[in-house]
Amino acid sequence: HERDLIARREKLLGPAYRLFYANPLHFVRGEGAWLYDAAGRPYLDAYNNVACVGHSHPHVVAALSRQAAVLNTHTRYLHETILDYAEKLLATFPRELGQVMFTCTGSEANDLALRVAKMHTGGTGVIVTDWAYHGVTDAVSQLSPSLGSGVLRGGYVRTVPAPDSYRSVGQDVAEAFARDVAAAIDDMRAKGIKPAALLVDTILSSDGVFSDPPGFFAKAAEVIRAAGGIFIADEVQPGFGRTGGQMWGFERHGLVPDLVTVGKPMGNGHPMAAMIAKPEILKAFGRASRYFNTFGGNPVSCAVGMAVLEVIESEGLVDHTQKVGAYLREKIGRLSDKHAIIGDVRGAGLFIGVELVRDRKNLEPATTETARLINDMRERGVLISGTGPHANILKIRPPLVFSKENADLFVSTLDDALA
Ligand code: PMP
């Protein structure tokens, strides 16, 4: 049956989509941290940072169906849901970040942030990290070097190495990052390009999950601002409590971004995203543009988003994530005594990166071994993925409702697979 589905996909959807695994999974149901395939086999989901409050959470499902049964419409009419949700969402941000514009995907939110940054600064130059991913629109894919050669990068983009706490032990990564950003600005200016923004994913998900030491973005933010540009935090991956102990990844860096983009977990699977802004940054864009978004901020999305925030609050998921994340990281760390391939265990909350190396001295990336391990974990019923320019870093991002028991099962399965 799976083979039939794959053949139909290829015929109907064309050649551009890739599925996970050589032997793709076919899910029919999800609940909490578990997904169930067509044969009824359960899989522990440690991959999915979309279903943040758990797959098909009843409170979210109820809010969605309640609103869908009453009204969903174009967003150029007045409706209260958008205001109630905007208030609730903005209350999770520092006071300076006082306005929000809704979109449907993270890509669109970043695309909008790019436009706003250009209008506000009068510049066009954008700095991103070496292996960043920020989305798929034509403009934003140019800011996503991890998409590789399928993208023609515009001349206004500069890349800088991510602050790598593992490969630069003993160095001041904050200082090095700020220096690289300053050099990128000099290079732009030498070619007549005015800087508009430094855009970073605050946990550097696709660069390899770099979280330490907290605060390493603050100096670079000063550098870009001194050059007339703004600091944009892409919270599509780390946002909504995932880093544990706080709602937003940038909070670990002791700074307030000028713009923030959010998405993925915002609707627990319902497509919704947003850009949060300091009001003064939105002024020039507001005067000049005739922006509208047919679906962004529609009544159903706002009801869903509200329900997600309610569950994060009522189930205490921000604290839970910090506790269970620390527990899981510690237990994975202990596996490194036994398995020499584990070079580094890092991350924050329930966003964990495990870097696999062939040799702890020269740190040669264990790329093929990582792919084998991810596949082996899948055969054992646990879902994870890989990241980083050498695809040798396990990316572990379970739903925030991941329990201690789930963490124990995860670690024992990882232990067996590594063996
Ligand atoms: N930014 C980051 C950091 C992401 O990881 C992603 C999606 N993986 C996006 C933006 C784009 O979001 P979307 O797929 O919803 O367009």
From TrEMBL:
Q: What does the UniProt keyword field contain? A: Aminotransferase, Pyridoxal phosphate, Transferase
Q: Which Gene3D superfamilies match?
A: Aspartate Aminotransferase, domain 1, Type I PLP-dependent aspartate aminotransferase-like (Major domain)
Which CDD domains did the record assign?
OAT_like
Q: Which Pfam families match?
A: Aminotran_3
Any one Gene Ontology molecular-function term assigned to this protein's record = transaminase activity
Report the cofactors. Answer: pyridoxal 5'-phosphate
Reply yes or no: does the keyword Ligase apply.
Answer: no
Statement: the UniProt record of this protein carries the keyword Transferase: yes
Return the similarity comment: Belongs to the class-III pyridoxal-phosphate-dependent aminotransferase family.
Name of this chain's protein: Aspartate aminotransferase family protein
**Lineage, top ranks:** Bacteria, Pseudomonadati, Pseudomonadota, Alphaproteobacteria, Hyphomicrobiales
